[in-house]
Amino acid sequence: MNTTPLDSTGQRSATETARLVRGRELSAHEVVVEALARIEKREPALGAVTHIAPDEALKAADLLDRRIASGEKVGPLAGVATLVKDLYGFVPGWPTTMGGLPALKDARGPAEVWSRYPRAVVDADAVLIGQTNSPAFGFRGVTDNVLFGPARNPFDLSRNAGGSSGGAAAAVAAGLVPVAGASDAGGSIRIPAAWTNTFGFQPTAGRVPSAPRPVGFHLGPFLYEGPVTRNVADAALVMNTLQGYDARDPSSVPGQAEDFTTHLQRGIAGMRIGFTADFGGFPVEPAIRATIAEAVTVFEELGAVVEPIDLVLPAPHAELSRMWLRSLATMMLRDVEDHRVRGIDLGAEDGIPEQAWIWMDAASRMTMREVLDDRALRTDVLDALARAQERVDLIVGPTVVALPVENGSLGRTTGPASVDGTAVDPLIGWCPTYLTNFSGAPSASVPAGLAGDLPVGLLVIGRPHRDGDVFAAAAAIERIRPWQHLYPTMS
């Protein structure tokens, strides 16, 4: 039945797969069988997939094929094989290890409890086949844990895929699936996208509701769910299904639905784009600085007006990084205490990294004045971005300021401790991505090219509720400088 050629990794796009399945040129069963075969062949080298449900996936695919054969109208993601992140990503009966915590290795999601990504894509007739790797609590920009090990980068298996959605990005870059679900509290969609040459989209806060939300949701930065894909059109298709309203998320807004695919061809001629090489003072590796500066020239080719923008942040990057770490640590404290009350020690078997304990201890000792100061600083970051966006449609710069790091010993991989001779926090201090987690503005990491043999990502930030502008810019870049040919062929 299948006559459509596959790409170099053995993968079709989600958009093409759904078209073929709906038209009965390809069966959902075939799609799932192919995806499972790719996982069996490539996953041992990657560390990207932590749980596979082949029987459930094949059963769902066969049911979908019968529905199509009977003439039933099916959803926009019909037959697309996909993966969900194992971090606040709930599927009934599936593991819930919260990023590879050994204390939760046997924990399973309660019946009828779904998080947004798996529920939305299943309702759109995609087929869930498994879960992806992430670090404990998602509390760093790389993926490694003592239960599953590191998520390795398909471009260099000795290096990390980034985090905290590293398993999702590695699986997509390696061609296991065309799209995977990701979540983001400080850059966890966009950081691994930058390191794996994939497209990672983080929507405006509230566009995709967080429900059920993590414990301590209101204490930390904005949390997002979004897709990681190999092309922009697939991300637009998935965003059409993810967006919506849920009263359980106080930032969720009714009536926001739009068709993101309508932005793919509109171009960016006449847009004003502000370029920052360092997001107001982050050190940047020279190879990344050069790659980004060259990539930004494409906007002028496309008819946009590009101008340097001086992003004036309210504090040095090191202080902002510490504020983010304290904010996330308050959420982790709540999770640890919530499980302790139920008789579960999340720190068992050294599952929680030492750095996380250090920051939870610091958060537990904060005075009310210090808590209020952090909230004021977060507001100042929001105001700084808002002022910068008053005169430009988009802000662009490096997604992260360092190239992919080498994997460390089991569970202990971190990001760089210094960048271009300047000290940075190894957990998040090399990731300007967290700025939009304080502001709620939409952004995406778009492949900008390779520095040597390693990917570099371009961060594109839009005005709040102007998600379509980000898609328009990313799609325009992709038309001029496609990146799919750069994916490594994995055997």
Keywords:
single chain, 491 residues, alpha/beta, Amidase signature (AS) enzymes, eleven-stranded mixed β-sheet, two-stranded antiparallel sheet, 13 helices, 35% helix, catalytic activity, Amidase_dom
Characterization of the model:
The protein has helices spanning 14-22, 28-46, 54-69, 116-123, 166-173, 190-196, 232-242, 286-301, 317-341, 354-364, 368-389, 434-439, 467-480, and strands spanning 49-52, 81-85, 127-132, 152-153, 156-160, 179-184, 199-202, 224-229, 272-275, 305-308, 394-398, 418-419, 422-423, 443-451, 454-462. The mean pLDDT is 95. The protein has a single domain, classed as Amidase signature (AS) domain (Amidase signature (AS) enzymes), CATH 3.90.1300. It is globular, with a radius of gyration of 21 Å. An eleven-stranded mixed sheet has the order 1-3-2-6-8-7-14-15-11-9-10, sandwiched between helices. A two-stranded antiparallel sheet has the order 4-5. It has a two-stranded antiparallel ribbon with strand order 12-13. It is an alpha/beta fold and 491 residues long. The chain is built from 13 helices and 15 strands.
Short characterization:
With 491 residues, this protein is an alpha/beta fold. Helix content is 35%, strand content 15%. The protein has one domain: Alpha-Beta Complex (Amidase signature (AS) enzymes), CATH 3.90.1300.
Topology:
Blueprint: H1 14-22, H2 28-46, E1 49-52, H3 54-69, E2 81-85, H4 116-123, E3 127-132, E4 152-153, E5 156-160, H5 166-173, E6 179-184, H6 190-196, E7 199-202, E8 224-229, H7 232-242, E9 272-275, H8 286-301, E10 305-308, H9 317-341, H10 354-364, H11 368-389, E11 394-398, E12 418-419, E13 422-423, H12 434-439, E14 443-451, E15 454-462, H13 467-480
Parallel strand pairs: 2-3, 2-6, 9-10, 9-11
Antiparallel strand pairs: 1-3, 4-5, 6-8, 7-8, 7-14, 11-15, 12-13, 14-15
